[in-house]
Amino acid sequence: MARLSSQFDALIERFAQVLVDRIGASIPRGTAPPRGGKGGRKRDMRCRYPGCKNRSKGPRFRFFCEKHIKLPKKEQEAVLAKWAEKSSRSQPT
User: Fold this and answer.
1) Which residues contact 33 (CB under 8 A, 6 or more apart)?
2) pLDDT tens track of the chain, all 93 residues?
3) Which residues are CB-neighbours of 73 under 8 A, at least 6 positions away?
4) Is residue 11 part of a domain?
5) Domain, as residue range, for 57
6) pTM listed for this prediction
C-alpha cells in the first residue's frame, strides 16, 4: 500500500509543478507602475510668466519657457514671487 500512495504523491507533485509553471508563464512580470509614471503626481509644467501658455523647461530653468528664461534675474524673481503668492492662495489648506 505504501508504494501506491508514494506513486500517487509523485503524480500529485508533478501535476502541481506543471500547474505552477503554466500559471507563472501566463502572469506578466513587472506589474508595478514605473517610477515617475502613472503612480506619481503630475507636475505643472507651464511657464510661470503671467499669461504665457508655453511649456516651461522645468525646475532647472525655474519653470520658464525659452522666451522668458532670457529675462533679467530680478524680473524673474518678481514673477516667481507673484506666482507663488497666487498659487498658495488658490490651494485650500
Assistant:
1) 39
2) 456 688 888 899 999 998 888 888 877 776 665 565 555 677 889 999 999 999 999 999 999 999 999 999 999 999 999 999 988 887 665
3) none
4) no
5) 45-93
6) 0.52
Report DSSP state, residue 52.
-
C-alpha cell at 1: 500500500
Instruction: Give the separation between CA 65 and CA 74, rounded to whole angstroms.
Output: 17
Residue 55, phi-psi category: left (phi > 0), alpha (psi -120 to 50), beta (remainder): beta
In a domain, 72, yes or no: yes
Domain-located, residue 92: yes
Grouping H, G, I as helix, E, B as strand and the rest as coil, residue 46 is: strand
In a domain, 49, yes or no: yes
d(CA 44, CA 84): 13
Return the C-alpha cell found at 34: 514605473
Number of folded domains that form the chain: 1
Contact in structure between 48 and 79 (CB atoms under 8 Å) = yes
